[in-house]
């Protein structure tokens, strides 16, 4: 078996107030996988994500990206390798134009001139937003801003794309467009979501985190049709949605 692109071993973390958020989490994601992270509110999903690029550091255990430990001396490279797209695109878009926002990360890495412009336009092409390169982000729709937020991460040429609730607040057309984009990307994806149909559509594999521990890891179809597991960990499918009528996605 090849080295996982994301390798989390025995990760435990307690916040300064003493709240223990993670209890010995193990998670291994290989290159090219699309994996959904599911779980109820308070399960520890956000805490885990913030360890993946060193925003939080492990109380116990270890995190590595393509064999590189997530420790202080490696943080610049780790943050290039692990791109996090937050739930609110306005947390990532803060400059005057789409071009400036998408260029910000690679420019901080020292990319300049024609190479920087290529990075920007390639990232925007991949999310279908190249025609908006000179627009102010605040003039875009919410769905367009989310796609630009994805482009700001893609411009860093990451190895792992981590998406926090990517379908939230999107209308049906924007939700479908984003799904098409995510399927087209040649990058490893870890998607944190409460949108279980979206997980089934996009991620062949799902990991369930509950009370700070991994309680299930398998095919998304199998997870979503395990009624005792779903009930025990407060996971509910939308009314009328039955994965058995949709079928499972190929790996």
UniProtKB/TrEMBL annotation:
Q: What residues does the ABC transporter domain cover?
A: 6-236
Could you tell me which PROSITE patterns the record lists for this protein? Answer: ABC_TRANSPORTER_1, ABC_TRANSPORTER_2
Q: What is this protein called?
A: ABC transporter ATP-binding protein
**Classification via InterPro entries:** AAA+_ATPase (IPR003593), ABC_transporter-like_ATP-bd (IPR003439), ABC_transporter-like_CS (IPR017871), ABC_transpr_CbiO/EcfA_su (IPR015856), Co_trans_ATP-bd (IPR005876), ECF_ABC_transporter_ATP-bd (IPR050095), P-loop_NTPase (IPR027417)
- Which organism encodes this protein? Nocardioides taihuensis
Q: Which UniProt keywords apply?
A: ATP-binding, Cell membrane, Membrane, Nucleotide-binding, Translocase, Transport
Which family, according to the similarity comment?
A: Belongs to the ABC transporter superfamily.
Could you list the residue ranges forming a coiled coil in this record?
A: none
- Function, please? Part of an ABC transporter complex. Responsible for energy coupling to the transport system.
Major location (coarse): membrane
Enumerate the subcellular locations listed in this protein's record, separating them with semicolons.
Cell membrane
Q: Name one GO molecular function term.
A: ATP binding
Q: Does the keyword Glycosyltransferase apply?
A: no
Q: What SUPFAM superfamilies does UniProt report for this protein, alphabetically? A: P-loop containing nucleoside triphosphate hydrolases (SSF52540)
Name the PANTHER family on file.
Answer: ENERGY-COUPLING FACTOR TRANSPORTER ATP-BINDING PROTEIN ECFA1 (PTHR43553:SF24), HEAVY METAL TRANSPORTER (PTHR43553)
Topology with respect to the bilayer: Peripheral membrane protein
Query: Gene3D superfamilies annotated for this entry?
Result: P-loop containing nucleotide triphosphate hydrolases
* CDD domains referenced in this protein's UniProt entry, alphabetically: ABC_cobalt_CbiO_domain1 (cd03225)
């Amino acid at each position: 078996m090849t080295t996982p692109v994301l390798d989390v071993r025995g990760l435990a973390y307690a916040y300064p107030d003493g709240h223990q958020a993670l209890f010995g989490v193990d998670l291994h994601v290989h290159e090219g996988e699309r994996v959904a992270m599911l779980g109820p509110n308070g399960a520890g999903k956000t805490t885990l994500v913030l360890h993946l690029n060193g925003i939080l550091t492990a109380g116990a255990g270890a995190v590595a990206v393509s064999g590189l430990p997530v420790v202080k001396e490696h943080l610049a490279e780790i943050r290039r390798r692990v791109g996090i797209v937050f739930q609110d695109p306005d947390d990532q878009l803060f400059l005057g134009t789409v071009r400036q926002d998408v260029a910000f990360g690679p420019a901080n890495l020292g990319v300049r001139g024609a190479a920087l412009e290529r990075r920007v336009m390639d990232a925007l092409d991949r999310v279908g937003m190249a025609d908006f390169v000179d627009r102010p982000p605040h003039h875009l729709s919410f769905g367009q801003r989310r796609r630009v937020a994805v482009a700001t991460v893609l411009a860093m040429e990451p190895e792992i794309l981590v998406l926090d609730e990517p379908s939230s607040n999107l209308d049906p057309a924007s939700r479908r467009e984003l799904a098409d984009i995510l399927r087209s990307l040649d990058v490893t994806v870890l998607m944190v979501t409460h949108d279980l149909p979206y997980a089934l559509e996009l991620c062949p594999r799902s990991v369930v985190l509950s009370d700070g521990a991994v309680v299930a890891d398998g095919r998304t179809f199998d997870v979503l049709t395990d009624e005792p597991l779903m009930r025990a960990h407060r996971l509910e499918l939308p009314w009328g949605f039955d994965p058995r009528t949709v079928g499972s996605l190929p790996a």
